[in-house]
Amino acid sequence: MRKVLLTIIVVLSVSFTGCVRTVYVPHGEPVRLRQTVRNVKVWVRDSRGQMVAGRMDLPEGWYCLPLDEETEDGDGNQSR
Predict the structure, then answer these.
(1) Full 3-state SS string of the chain
(2) Is the distance from CB of 41 to CB of 17 less than 8 angstroms?
(3) In angstroms, rounded to a whole number, what is the distance separating the alpha carbons of residues 29 and 7?
(4) Rounded to an integer, what distance in angstroms lies between the CA atom of residue 64 and that of residue 32?
(5) Which of 12, 27, 47, 76 has its CA 20 to 30 A from that of 67?
(6) Are 19 and 44 spatial neighbours (Cβ–Cβ below 8 Å)?
(7) Are 31 and 64 contacting, i.e. CB atoms less than 8 angstroms apart?
(8) For each successive 10 residues of the chain (80 residues), what is the average pLDDT?
(9) How far apart are CA 35 and CA 46, in angstroms?
């Protein structure tokens, strides 16, 4: 009786939690956001072109792209 009850509990818990699928994205490939991501820490340029820390919401549909290693300076900031 315990085995049957345990089996029923396991089957029900698996069916209600659903499946999780992991998708591999190769390093350096862009991704598109499926939903808005709020309060993300970002680097932005000020009026003098200097990189400053900021926060913003990234809207659904925006693309996230990696920086090329060549275009970053020693602090991880993009240089032009």
Answers:
(1) CHHHHHHHHHHHHHHHHCCCCCCCCCCCCCEECCCCEEEEEEEEECCCCCEEEEEEEECCCCEECCCCHHHECCCCCECC
(2) no
(3) 43
(4) 6
(5) 47
(6) no
(7) yes
(8) 70 63 84 94 92 95 82 54
(9) 27
pLDDT of amino acid 73: 56
pTM: 0.52
The tokens for 5 are 């009850």
Torsion of CA 63, 69, 70, 72, to 10 degrees: 80
Beta pairing class for 63-64 and 51-58: unpaired
Domain ranges across the chain: 2-64
**Joined tokens for residue 80:** 């032009």
Residue of 32, 79, 37 whose CA lies nearest to 59: 37
Predicted pLDDT of residue 23: 81
